[in-house]
Amino acid sequence: MIRQFPAPAALAAQLTGARPGAGGSPAGPAPVRDAATVMLVRDGADGVEVFLFRRVRSMVFAAGMHVFPGGRTDAADADPGVPWEGPDPAVLGGALGATPDAARALAVTAGRETFEECGVLLASPPGGGPVVGLPGGWDDARRALLDGSTTLPDLLRDNGLVLRADRFAAWARWVTPPGEVRRYDTRFFLVPMPPEQTAHDLGGEGERAEWVPAREAVRRWEAGEAAMLPPTIVCCEDLAAAPDVAALRVTPRAISPVMPWAVAGADGGVVVRVVLDGRGGGAYGDPADGATGPDAAEFSDGRS
């Protein structure tokens, strides 16, 4: 299934630089880096709710967009000794299309970014139970992560906690198209909100944060009230179609990389086109549509 989305002006200007004949950067596309995004979800009176925040408009990547918590993988996220409770990283890697080491690092990235950006620690004592408290307080722990004086694996070890990877459901994988200044191979995780914790906008990257019924998030985008990138739109549509979080947790997913591309719209503007299979995967183009998506060479840096 081919979907088309209008491209915000700033994004359109970057994406069209990657189209044939558009005079893109002589250096070629920017390198692709691993990243992780977390859809924190909970049941609400109007269906599944998801935690969203709007990125500040001065940011280089996705400025002004409504997004889920997430970010790029750092070197410290690759700590092989991270306290871990859940499936073997090889199993998670199979779902994500990643090596065991990369899958472990992606899960750590997801946990770190969620704690940094909204104060939710996706961890517990070994065997379960809530995180009662952290020495010095949660704010000090977050600041230590943000300023690099500690890492998430060290924070967990120091407090006798484990990363609850068993709560992470692999949901989708989107790759930033050529033309963007920064490109990411982003794995999306679905994670139920720990009931004993509270999410806030704490990372400094958001102008506003809130719990939103997924169907309301979709409505706002359709009405032009909230700007979103295609991955966020599609994921919110997925969430809106489910009756509750439990149903999402058992939804079969066939995750494969999805990479949008820019084409000229009928009105002379730019639209973002993407092929989706409806199960968490996609493709790079459909000759039957009369258009050509990104060539496989665009994705030839070891990702598949």
**Architecture (CATH level 2) name:** Alpha-Beta Complex
- Give, in order, the helices and strands: EHEEEEEHHEHHEEEEHHHEEE
* Overall average residue pLDDT: 83
What's the end-to-end separation, in Å? 20 Å
Written account of the structure:
The chain is an alpha+beta fold and 304 residues long. The protein has a single domain, classed as Nucleoside Triphosphate Pyrophosphohydrolase, CATH 3.90.79.10. It contains eight helices and 14 strands. The protein has helices spanning 9-15, 89-96, 100-118, 138-146, 152-158, 214-222, 230-240, 245-249, and strands spanning 2-6, 32-44, 47-55, 66-67, 70-72, 84-85, 123-124, 162-164, 169-175, 183-192, 206-213, 261-264, 270-276, 282-283. The strands form three sheets. Strands 2, 3, 4, 5, 9, 10 and 11 form a seven-stranded mixed beta sheet that branches. Helix 2 packs across helix 3 and helix 6 packs across helix 7 (230-240). The longest helix is centred in the middle third of the chain and has 19 residues, at 100-118. It starts with a strand and ends in a 21-residue tail after the last strand. The model is unreliable at 18-26 and 284-304 (pLDDT under 50).
